Each structure stands twice: as C-alpha cells, then as structure tokens.
Amino acid sequence: MKFTITLDRDEDGVWVVECPAIPGCISQGETREQALENIQDAIALCLQVRAEQGIPLTVETRQVEVVA
C-alpha cells in the first residue's frame, strides 16, 4: 500500500512525519531519513491495530483548492 505523508521540522529541528489517512499515525526522527523509516513502521503498526479492533484501516483524504 502507498500512503501520502506530511514531513515537517519542529522548533527543535526534529523531523515530524504524519500519515493523514490514518488518524493518530505520527512519528519523528532526528534526521529526515530516520523519520521516513519510522513512519513506515508506525503505519504498519497502526494498520495492524485498526484491523484487530475492527476499525476502518484508513479515512478518506482529498485535496482541495483554496484561493488566498
């Protein structure tokens, strides 16, 4: 499965990564590469827990256009 993720740095320089299609699926890393590896593990674990609990694996995400 492929998922869209967001990747950002916090005020301490730590990379924070999130998978919007899986509520609460967030990880981090000291480097960008570490954060990307960590979110893969987090996604797998989140999917496993959601399946065990009978919760839908993902929620719908969409892109919208905002005119500013």
Unreliable stretches covering 5 or more consecutive residues:
none
Rg value: 13 Å
How does the overall form come out from the CA principal axes?
flat
Q: What amount of the residues lies in strands?
A: 15-25%
Estimate percent helicity.
25-40%
The number of E-state strands comes to 3
Label the structural class. Answer: alpha+beta
Task: Summarize the topology.
Elements: E1 6-9, E2 15-18, E3 26-29, H1 32-52
Antiparallel strand pairs: 1-2, 2-3
Question: How would you describe this structure to a colleague?
Answer:
This protein is α+β, with helices and mostly antiparallel strands. The chain is built from 1 helix and 3 strands; from the N terminus they run E-E-E-H. The protein has a 3-stranded antiparallel beta sheet, covered by helices on one side. A hairpin with a 7-residue loop joins strand 2 (15-18) and strand 3.
Quick summary:
Helix content is 31%, strand content 18%. The protein has 68 residues and is an alpha+beta fold.
Main attributes?
68 residues; flat; 3-stranded antiparallel beta sheet; alpha+beta
